[in-house]
Write a structure and sequence with these properties.
It is elongated, with a radius of gyration of 28 Å. Helix 5 packs across helix 7. The strands form 4 sheets. A 5-stranded mixed sheet has the order 3-2-1-5-8. A 5-stranded mixed sheet has the order 4-10-9-6-7. By secondary structure, it is of the alpha+beta class. Among the domains are: 165 residues, Cupredoxins -  blue copper proteins (Immunoglobulin-like, Sandwich); 93 residues, Sandwich (Immunoglobulin-like). The termini are far apart. The longest helix has 34 residues. It is built from 7 helices and 14 strands. A hairpin with a 4-residue loop joins strand 11 and strand 12. The structure holds copper (II) ion. The site of copper (II) ion (CU) has 6 residues, from loops.
């Protein structure tokens, strides 16, 4: 039975179509917009995809209109308007095979040449060399030692905040010590998969202007995948030089006394963290210059007293992790940073719970680690 397409139904359908478009328009400028490229790689990709969009939209609209036209014109009308029945039309069939093939071939030429261009790796002396390790669920950056052009003498291990000078080329050597991740700074470059047991190489060019660019893990990697962000901080040459020199100085304060006792013995933070040497990686982020990082915890929180204190006492309450029950690094089966205020025991013995005062001692020290 045919139903009349009444006005109320039309309106309902229109509303259904309108809601997603309106919501899409609400998307705020979150610094992850690959349609507003700021770095050369991202610009090259946008210059390729934009004309293809135009062609695709024109063809898409044509196909939809033709489909709607045929559906309306030849809809069941008690047999009155059956189209003329034919079998085979060589001209049409050859036409609609060759035309798309030509179109795809035309699109392939600039696409393939851009793939090769983006895969180029400049000489080691020309680009800042950074090893990237995808962790669960944060990013570790290790500036390779001996890069005089970029002010790096000793290796520098940091997390979440990647500092680079304006206009510089950066070659990333990406790997993972756990599961698959994908490294993506939408406004600067395309993605690169981060695969355990492999090193994938990606070179990008920083923006010409200073700026803070948001990156994210773009490959589902477990519980806190959505919280695995990072930032690329593009700085003037002078600011970058100051930062990289600061990272290579030892800790601002001696690592001794009560703080060393709490973090080294009582709570054994040193199982997972290094407090006094920025050249050494560990299971968790290197904390030697923590206070120089604007954001911590996978870029999800600003580095300030309130956030740090809450984090140190009970990190899993801020980012979902599989570590409440365990204060040991791998090969234990916990993932992430444990809670120090949730009662747990190890080998049948209850572990000490952190007091607010102890947390203050640790936070005071960490905030001094510029
Ligand atoms: Cu991920």
């Amino acid at each position: 039975m045919r139903q009349k397409l009444g006005w109320s139904r039309v309106r309902r359908i229109a509303l259904l179509l309108a809601v997603p478009s309106v919501l899409a328009a609400c998307a705020n400028d979150n610094g992850q917009n690959s349609l507003s490229p700021k770095g050369q790689n991202a610009k090259d990709i946008a210059n390729l995809i934009n004309p293809i969009w135009v062609i695709a939209i024109v063809i898409g609209i044509g196909v939809v209109l033709a489909t709607v036209f045929v559906a309306l014109r030849f809809r069941d009308n008690e047999g009155k308007r059956n189209p003329k029945q034919t079998h085979g039309n060589s001209v049409l069939e050859i036409g609609w095979t060759i035309l798309p093939a030509l179109l795809l071939a035309a699109v392939a030429v600039p696409t393939i040449s851009l793939i090769f261009k983006l895969a180029e790796t400049p000489a080691k002396s020309e680009a800042l060399q950074v090893e990237v390790v995808g962790k669960q669920w944060w990013w570790e950056f290790q500036y390779k030692a001996n890069q005089p052009k970029f002010g790096v003498d000793e290796k520098v291990v940091t997390s979440t905040m990647l500092h680079v000078p304006v206009g510089a080329k950066i070659t990333f050597y990406e790997t993972s010590d756990n599961v698959l991740h994908s490294f993506w700074v939408p406004e600067l470059s395309g993605k690169k998969d981060v695969v355990p047991g492999r090193t994938n190489v990606l070179t990008i060019t920083a923006s010409e202007e200073p700026g803070l660019f948001r990156g994210a893990c773009a490959e589902y990697c477990g519980l806190s995948h959505a919280n695995m962000k990072f930032w690329v901080k593009v700085e003037s040459k002078a600011d970058y030089a100051k930062w990289i020199a600061g990272q290579q100085e030892g800790p601002n304060q001696a690592y001794e006394g009560e703080v060393a006792n709490l973090t080294g013995k009582k709570y054994q933070c040193v199982n997972c963290h290094v407090f006094d040497n920025s050249a050494t990686p560990n299971y968790g982020p290197n904390l030697t210059h923590l206070a120089s990082r604007q954001y911590f915890a996978g870029g999800m929180y600003k580095t300030n007293r309130a956030n740090l204190k809450r984090w140190i006492m009970n990190a899993p309450s801020m980012i979902p992790m599989q570590s409440q029950e365990c204060r040991l690094p791998p090969p234990a089966t916990c993932v992430g940073m444990p809670s120090y205020t949730t009662p747990i025991s190890q080998n049948g013995k209850p572990l000490p719970l952190m007091t607010s005062r102890e947390a203050d001692v640790i936070v005071d020290y960490l905030l001094g680690q510029k």
